[in-house]
Give the backbone structure.
Amino acid sequence: MKINPTIKTILDHKSIRKYTEENPSDEIVESIVKAGQQAPFAYQCYSLLLSRNRKRNPWNAPLLFTICIDLHKFERIMAKRQWKLIINDLALLLLGIQDASLMAENMVVAGRSLGLGSCFLGSAIWRAEKIAEEYKLPKRVFPLVQLVMGYPAENPPTRPRYPLEFTLFEEEYPKFEKETISRAMHQMDSGYLAQNYYRKLKAKIPLDGTRKETFTYDDYSWTEHISRKLGQWDPDPNNLLEQLTKRGFDLTRNRLKNPEDSE
Amino acid sequence: MKINPTIKTILDHKSIRKYTEENPSDEIVESIVKAGQQAPFAYQCYSLLLSRNRKRNPWNAPLLFTICIDLHKFERIMAKRQWKLIINDLALLLLGIQDASLMAENMVVAGRSLGLGSCFLGSAIWRAEKIAEEYKLPKRVFPLVQLVMGYPAENPPTRPRYPLEFTLFEEEYPKFEKETISRAMHQMDSGYLAQNYYRKLKAKIPLDGTRKETFTYDDYSWTEHISRKLGQWDPDPNNLLEQLTKRGFDLTRNRLKNPEDSE
């Protein structure tokens, strides 16, 4: 394994949920955002909202970034060039989420190199309408994810990841042996158990319906936790589709056949 | 602006489309992938495919990564825990693209810190079926983007980005003044023109229909180029929806109301 200061910074990553009283300077914020902007992009169709209101921010953190897919900005540019956006929203969303996430990860890494910790909040997509009201977002701007940042007041260990044999596949996707699945599960579960991760967070997810609880914090770990999320929660895409629609995104519309403006 | 080795690495980013004959060692590949894996994630629902077949890879590059959204792996894990995935595919796609892109950007930055250049290929989403055949992907694995890597045989300048005033908004999304739009356009257009970017690539996009060409490579630049893409191409989402469907993703299905397996 090759190590240099950049790779060390990347490998040291962990989510931070406690922050000191120190406020990052404007220069620090600008450095982090400019590092974000230098990420590769398809269309640069993102915007960053910033709140420095500690009272409102999660964990009273000094910085809360809300990372948005922004089609509004480019539509304004196109209007100046006498063009109208015609590409379908699904394509723009698939490419836009990538643009926005590449930027976000640069911010995480740059922040860490300057001593700041961070934590993503993935719930923004379900609260898009509320966030849009807070920040007065125009239509065609969709809040994708939030990123909390500040100086860490905790120093948790780095969390486990899948083994390489369960992540990287050369030339052909494998038919997994049962043992490969088991090893991947074991690496995640034993790793989180060794850190007492779910016990400390008291994060066990209750079972719906007729399933009977058989786990204690001695054996409840990552694969069971994620299984309970993906196996019990949110079967219906309509909540998300509605949030997208309210922000002016229509994933199934052919924009030539139905050319009326979505706004 | 704060500068350190990590931020310098991030700010130095540019896409590389010419590569030397040198092949990155296994250790280099492993270091890049492990740096990728350490990115934050919601569900780690990605996989990486690797081709070292220079003859097949774009620009005969030594490494071609194909970054996939992978629900298959977690469904295998859930089956071992006697769970069935029930969360809607749209949510998994919105979160999965983030997981995969955060990982990808770590790979780009780690690679660059080790002397490797890279370039994303965004066309994978439209060629998903073909890529799935090549790598024998099971259903529920969707190729999101490809990342070409190798040692650079060119040293282009870094490309322009929007001004900060067009990217970062504190407390409230602004009503843009016309001048703000113009400054953002000017920064992008004059930046690319100064580098002769489109002239060197001979990349002018032809005009469809009745529009008359009025641009030469003296004034054709980024905002006109992207306007022609977003204003002329791909109005119909059905091509993408079909690629997703063929890979076993259904963005509008309520998995409880229609619980039959998609495979």
Q: What stands out?
A: DSSP finds nine helices and five strands in chain A. The first strand of chain A starts at residue 46 and ends at 51.
